[in-house]
Design brief:
Helix content of chain C: over 70%
Chains: A mainly alpha, B mainly alpha, C mainly alpha
Number of strands of chain C: 0
Structural class of chain C: mainly alpha
Distance between the termini of chain C: 48 Å
Strand content of chain C: under 5%
Number of strands of chain A: 0
Strand content of chain A: under 5%
Order of helices and strands of chain C: HHHHHHHH
Largest interface: B-C, 28 and 33 residues
Radius of gyration of chain C: 21 Å
Radius of gyration of chain A: 18 Å
Oligomer: heterotrimer
Helix content of chain A: over 70%
Largest sheet of chain C: none
Number of helices of chain C: 8
Shape of chain C: flat
Largest sheet of chain A: none
Order of helices and strands of chain A: HHHHHHHHHH
Distance between the termini of chain A: 28 Å
Number of helices of chain A: 10
Number of domains of chain A: 1
């Protein structure tokens, strides 16, 4: 039997996780509806004044996306951990960090991408205009993979612990803050007419940093959890 | 020495509340921590005697 | 002979050694803090701009420094523990965390006490304050993660990974909040433009800082002793968990 190459293994992980997600379509729908409902609650709580909504909109939408990512983190490794697949995966000769990238990517396609695609509609609720809607979508497109990447570290650290849902929030939210600041900052600067390029490039830097660092840390954390 | 009297010292030029709360809480935290560690150690020693 | 050396680096040998060191550090801490307070309250002059409220910095700045030093030291022990798989360095990291969290809390509280008379607000979203707050969250996260894991070996290593990730995070947060403040010009307060300090003020602050260092050594060593005793009491923890699992399965 010939050994599968790195890219074959990566593709296999992504394909398998997406297939599993398609079998549990209601899980995907839940995180999307969560975002819609939470984003709709804010105007009801704050009031319908257009100027206020336009001011808080970027922050609210970004925090909502962040919470949706947080809620879906539990699904990232738990099923594989419980049925023993994760233990087998750790034995594969390919680097565990690369396989983590595959799992995180599949997770993002299922939980992050729908939120990104939905965000222009949600932005309309907050009275954001054309260009800003574009910046919002772009910032989420850059930011949500970063959130999934960082969140994976927390998910791996708390794997199989009691009360891990709350614990992962406490561990991961401080790590999300830079992404939140740059992401919401990009949209805010677009609302107030300043260019959003600087914030977007910093968001890109966060993505690259997390891409270089987080899968490796997640792999270490997974090995610790599996011992 | 810049303080004319004891009450002047405690008044801290009108900022007494802020200054003494800061120093008070710091002292409380540090003494509290020392006490907590002390008691934890005593409990640990007592329990390890019980076991052996 | 090799066995002897091994014994000296073991927790059992470290316990009495730490016991001998603690009194010295305690006495040094007490003396230095008393000297620092004396200089701070009786020698250092009243500040011509801030009045006597500035005396808060004699605890605020040393506490803030300690909170950061201790985090870096904790992360370093955690890194050594992960790299060399050394149990004593995990114990050091475990012992440092509560003291670091306490100093972070003190720094935040005294910062608010200093901010109210100086800026007119208990809290501003300044980069330093925000980073300090996040530092407190990270300390709490590390302590809670350790508390949530029953398996000692996993608890050691998982909280070590979290501590190391946090080391990267805090500078990024400091930078990002500064960036964010330039976007929201109205709220930003410049703390960098502080007037030049008198030498006596600086002396008092440095002596207090060394005193806090000594205090941290003493308390951390005392807590390491507790950790050693707690762990030695249950040398069979591996068996215990498996017994627990069997009991739960029934």
């Amino acid at each position: 039997m010939s050994q599968p190459s790195m890219s074959e293994a990566l593709g296999g992980v992504v394909r398998r996780d997406l297939l599993l997600a398609m079998r549990h379509r209601s899980d995907v729908a839940m995180s999307v509806f969560f975002v819609v409902i939470v984003a709709s609650l804010f105007p009801l709580g704050v009031g319908p004044e257009a100027a206020v909504l336009r001011m808080i909109g970027p922050g609210v939408l970004w925090v909502t996306a962040l919470l949706a990512c947080l809620l879906s983190l539990g699904r990232l490794f738990t099923a594989d951990y419980l049925d023993g697949v994760l233990e087998q995966t750790a034995l594969i000769p390919q680097s565990l960090a690369v396989l983590v990238i595959g799992k995180v990517f599949a997770h993002w396609v299922v939980s992050g991408l729908p939120v990104v695609l939905l965000s222009p509609l949600l932005g309309l609720q907050f009275g954001l205009d054309g260009v800003t809607l574009g910046v919002l979508t772009l910032s989420l497109l850059l930011g949500t993979p970063t959130l999934s990447m960082i969140g994976a570290i927390g998910a791996a650290l708390t794997l199989g612990l009691r009360g891990s849902g709350l614990l992962v929030a406490l561990l991961v939210l401080p790590l999300f803050i830079p992404v939140l600041i740059f992401g919401a900052g990009a949209v805010t600067s677009s609302v107030s007419g300043i260019g959003s390029e600087a914030n977007l490039s910093l968001l890109g830097a966060c993505f690259l940093l997390s891409f270089a660092f987080a899968p490796w840390a997640t792999a270490v954390a997974l090995r610790i959890a599996l011992e | 020495m810049q303080w004319g009297s004891v009450s002047e010292f405690f008044a801290m030029g009108g900022y007494g509340l802020y200054v003494w709360v800061s120093f008070g809480v710091t002292a409380l935290c540090m003494f509290g921590e020392v006490l907590a560690v002390w008691r934890r150690h005593a409990a640990a020693v007592a329990e390890s005697r019980d076991v052996s | 002979m090799g066995i002897n050396w091994f014994k000296y680096s073991s927790p059992q040998a470290f316990h009495p050694l730490a016991g001998k060191m603690i009194p010295w550090f305690s006495v040094a801490a007490g003396l230095l803090i008393i000297i620092g307070l004396y200089i701070g309250f009786f020698v250092a002059p009243t500040d011509f701009q801030q009045g006597d409220s500035y005396r808060i910095i004699f605890v605020h700045v040393p506490a803030a420094w300690m909170s950061m030093f201790l985090y870096v030291i904790m992360a370093a022990w955690a890194g050594v523990g992960l790299g060399l798989n050394a149990r004593p360095s995990f114990m050091m990291a475990q012992a440092i965390a509560p003291t670091g969290a306490m100093f972070t809390f003190i720094a935040l509280l005294t910062g608010a006490m200093w901010g109210k008379p100086t800026w007119g607000a208990w809290w501003v979203w300044d980069a330093r304050l925000t980073s300090e707050l996040i530092l407190l969250f990270q300390y709490i996260g590390i302590i809670l993660l350790r508390a949530a894991i029953d398996d000692l070996r996993r608890a050691d290593r998982a909280s070590a990974v979290l501590a190391l990730v946090g080391v990267v995070n805090v500078p990024i947060i400091y930078f990002s909040v500064r960036w964010w403040n330039t976007l929201h010009q109205g709220a930003s307060v410049s703390m960098t433009a502080s007037p030049k300090m008198a030498t006596t003020m600086l002396t008092a602050m440095l002596i207090m800082t060394v005193g806090f260092w000594m205090y941290s050594f003493a308390v951390t060593l005392a807590r390491v002793r507790c950790v050693i005793l707690d762990r030695e009491r249950q040398p069979m923890w591996g068996n215990q968990t498996s017994i627990q699992e069997v009991a739960e399965a029934r």
